[in-house]
Amino acid sequence: MQSKLRAARAAFPHTVPVLTGYVFMGMAFGMLLASKGYGAGWAFLMALLIYAGSGQFLAAGLMAAGFDPLTMALMTLAVNARHVFYGISMLERFKQFGRAKYYMIFALTDETFALLCSARPPEGMAEKPFYLAISIMDQCYWIIGCTLGGLLGSALPINTQGIDFVMTALFVVILLEQWREKANRTPALIGLFASLACRVVFGPQWFILAAMAVLVVVFTLTRRPLEKQRKEGAA
Questions:
Q1: Domain extents for the chain?
Q2: Residue 231 burial (10 A CB sphere; 0-12, 13-18, 19+)
Q3: Which of 114, 121, 128 is closest to 83 using CA atoms?
Q4: Angstrom distance (rounded) from CA 140 to CA 26
């Protein structure tokens, strides 16, 4: 237990940007869901079992329009397909996690994936408890935000127009956090240019999926040089 608490204390400072983003973004989702007629209980369950911001915002609209399982499944797959590539890219690292690797793969949101790629445990601490603490805390932030938003949305009349822009704002914050560390600028630039190129080539509907596929290939091929650059920058 003491080692888990130590890992949580070490991981917490890395998760602060996600804390601030997830609580407010989760509240936005909870309020949006409440405006569609679904209470805080639904927000809590979706945050616990789905745990995908873009997928949950999409589901809120689809649930309000009428339940269509096939359409919902296909749309969710298209929106969140990038998470498949996150899991594939982390399989080697997660081998040491035992049964916890299944939760680690489930918990790979955009922001958690970025932290797992950039954050490093303190000297003398194993990777497993450190990265597991990051993943658990990030999901707890999301659950708290969604539930609070559901409660507020059910109790107060709130105009939800444009509220889903909070997701874009969070992605910008995560990018800026990575940009502040010189050792992480190359991956950020690769991601930026790959996304812009795929946006031009594949259009707005498919560019996210195409960009993630390109990035998995690029980062797999350049993993060792990027790791070397990160270590030299941290030294």
A1: 2-164, 181-235
A2: exposed
A3: 114
A4: 11
